């Protein structure tokens, strides 16, 4: 009778660590890629997926996939040469601009429930948008706030809308025109203000590259109400609401009360400025940012989706105005597809870190995916990545590391390139392989 063999503990640990459960990773080779054909109809359907603004509405259960966007703006104060029509003191104007943008960002961080339709249950979603006053780094001492003094086209005339849409200020004073939304704060003409019949209200216009806010200086001097017997005025907080409205136009949103803006959750209405004793304004007053009302503090899910589609789609004027904070890998921004999860990505997306597909997971990528520099995609054994008619690249003109595939004795990660799928800008490119017909 032989004595049973007892293995040392160190040997057992070695076998456990180096046995069939051990996974090795290497950058994908041509032999590990499965190529598949698609039909022309499939290509068209995938393009429609990527252009569907509903796919850009933030999912509150996974907000890490919907990072906050930052839009670059600058501020211009246009005044007459006597400095009597607009803010006369530049430092006062500068502080007004800084507070206005801070208040606008506060409204963007604090989306409110829709007033209309009465009794609605429209979801209140995070807007995931902020503004940043952006300096011109080629100009020493520049802070993104500018002052212009001229006696030509320094004003807006509410009785002559051609002055509102006149682009002379943008053509002559615009800074970093392609990369930054230029915001012009325009006064009423002094002669107009002296006329009792002239409408001295604020107004504005938003175009793809520039915005005008008019009457802000005059309005800032008007009493808005009292708190504990102390008066307060229509200051930066009021101009901030107008700024959000006009930049809403710049980002592709339309008025909602009198037109089809492409959203089912923005009902048409009488466009009451505020509540009053007369119908319909006794109960039907909008607070949507794209209506003419005193509140302008609500964005619907559809409107948020429209904004983020235009900020995500390659080649749009809106995307040109973004801070490109997705170019380099950022700590703590890695994304995981959970074990055995099946996920479809049907929108243009920029990641800020690595992408890992856990064991048994399945990810379909249908639209352009941007990976940051030094980041990689890791496909664990038993996980599958399908890239269908989509491109994975670095949209900042740099490179990203590539795709690592995990292998052990039981399984291997799967990489499927379907249709017109492309992998670009890789530090570890995969040799091309011809699809068999």
Describe the protein.
- Helix 3 (90-109) crosses helix 8.
- Strand 3 (69-79), helix 3 (90-109) and strand 4 form a beta-alpha-beta unit.
- The strands form 5 sheets. Strands 3, 4, 5, 6, 7 and 8 form a 6-stranded mixed beta sheet that branches. The protein has a 5-stranded mixed beta sheet with strand order 1-20-17-14-11, with no helix packed on it.
- Helix content is 21%, strand content 22%.
- The protein has helices spanning 9-18, 40-51, 90-109, 162-165, 168-173, 190-193, 216-220, 236-250, 301-312, 317-320, and strands at 24-27, 33-36, 69-79, 129-133, 145-149, 181-186, 203-206, 210-214, 223-227, 230-233, 335-337, 342-345, 349-350, 355-357, 362-365, 369-370, 376-379, 384-388, 391-393, 402-407, 414-418, 422-423.
- The longest helix is centred in the first third of the chain and has 20 residues, at 90-109.
- The protein is α/β, with parallel strands linked by helices.
- The model has no long low-confidence stretch (mean pLDDT 93).
- The protein is built from 10 helices and 22 strands.
- It folds into 2 domains: 17-52 and 328-423, no CATH class; 68-318, Collagenase (Catalytic Domain) (3-Layer(aba) Sandwich).
